[in-house]
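Q: I'm building a small set of examples for a reading group on sequence design. Run inverse folding on the following structure and report the sequence directly after it, with nothing in between.
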């Protein structure tokens, strides 16, 4: 599908102060954002945060109570779903079991009155592009879960939409297939160049797939950024706690040294972390320490030689998961619990429950927010 030079400079999706309420409940709270042409944009959030409501407003299945939605530079107010340059892939795919694969993929083209020979040609080309060449005559029930996923995507992309909306499309797949389909989806989006808007509660899907991610909570976007920005530079406590694994410690700021805050927890643990936003001495604060930023050692000298603050702790549990293995431990004096990643080299793989170790981290690699 060719678009004018002007349209190529416009965002494919723009929302301006879009809101949706159900009685006294605000599902979407005057959101404004834009999605660049040809990008993969994900909306990540817990169940009930408003992401599906937002997606249904973009698709036209729901009307916003306030604000405007533009797709491909054109206002969508009052435009019904079947007139929008949008297609949607659902978690349960909604393929027609009585139709062949080719008939499923060509269904939308047939509804548009496209000639049969043209449908056959475009369906064949599309199935080749999603790695299902020659599958036109197969029945849907002959396909694996991943193949059905590709058929659903092909059925949408053959219509050349400006936007492809994906509503938790991998949720019904088993873990191994889900991991495989993440890679396939990313490759498909890059190959087609169609703008994907993807909603999920799975942070791994959002981080792996997306150019940009919006973290949604209570109808609002807490932060929009690249996966790297969300992971390494969270701007709110919710983002820090929701994106990736984190150890959370609440307390009170007892000292400020430049951008480094020293906090003391209610149980007496004293640690330091980098302040995000304004933090003053005496403020109630919350610090976040990712499992992989902390180091483990049997020797105190590992940390004293490096000049790093460190703690003595006892191991409560061992979680073996290959490269994602970790230990559960508690700091000796405060009994504060932490999850610390084990080195991927296999070093310290012989740790045992009950063993005493040391752990520490660079305060610049932990973050702290005023509560």
């Amino acid at each position: 599908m060719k678009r004018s030079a002007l349209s190529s400079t416009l965002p494919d999706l723009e929302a301006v102060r879009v809101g949706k309420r159900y009685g006294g409940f605000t599902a979407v709270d005057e959101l404004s954002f834009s999605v660049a042409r040809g990008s993969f944009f994900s909306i990540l959030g817990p169940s009930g945060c408003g992401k599906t409501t937002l997606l249904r407003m973009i698709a036209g299945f729901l009307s916003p109570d306030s604000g405007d939605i533009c797709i491909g530079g054109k206002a969508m107010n009052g435009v019904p779903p079947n007139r929008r340059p949008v297609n949607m892939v659902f978690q349960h795919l909604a393929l027609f079991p009585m139709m062949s694969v080719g008939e499923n993929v060509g269904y939308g083209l047939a509804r548009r009155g496209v000639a049969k020979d043209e449908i056959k040609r475009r369906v064949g080309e599309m199935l080749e592009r999603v790695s299902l060449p020659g599958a036109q005559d197969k029945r849907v029930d002959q396909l694996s879960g991943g193949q059905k996923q590709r058929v659903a995507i092909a059925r949408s992309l053959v219509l050349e939409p400006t936007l492809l909306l994906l509503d938790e499309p991998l949720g019904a797949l088993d873990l191994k297939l889900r991991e495989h389909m993440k890679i396939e989806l990313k490759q498909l989006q890059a190959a087609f160049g169609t703008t994907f808007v993807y909603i999920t509660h799975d942070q791994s899907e959002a981080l792996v797939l997306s150019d940009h991610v919006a973290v949604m909570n209570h109808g609002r976007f807490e932060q929009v950024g690249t996966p790297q920005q969300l992971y390494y530079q969270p701007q709110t406590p919710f983002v820090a706690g929701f994106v990736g694994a984190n150890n959370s410690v609440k307390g009170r700021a007892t000292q400020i040294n430049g951008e480094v805050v020293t906090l003391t927890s209610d149980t007496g643990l004293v640690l330091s972390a980098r302040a995000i936003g304004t933090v003053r001495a005496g403020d109630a604060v919350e610090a976040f320490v990712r499992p992989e930023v902390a180091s483990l050692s049997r020797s105190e000298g590992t940390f004293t030689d490096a000049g790093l603050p460190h703690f003595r702790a006892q191991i409560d549990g061992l979680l073996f998961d290959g490269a994602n293995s970790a230990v559960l431990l508690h700091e000796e004096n405060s009994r504060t619990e932490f999850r610390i990643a084990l080195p991927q080299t296999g070093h310290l793989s012989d740790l045992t429950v009950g063993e005493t170790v040391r752990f520490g981290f660079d305060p610049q690699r932990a973050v702290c927010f005023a509560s």
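Residues 94 and 352 are 50 Å apart (CA to CA).
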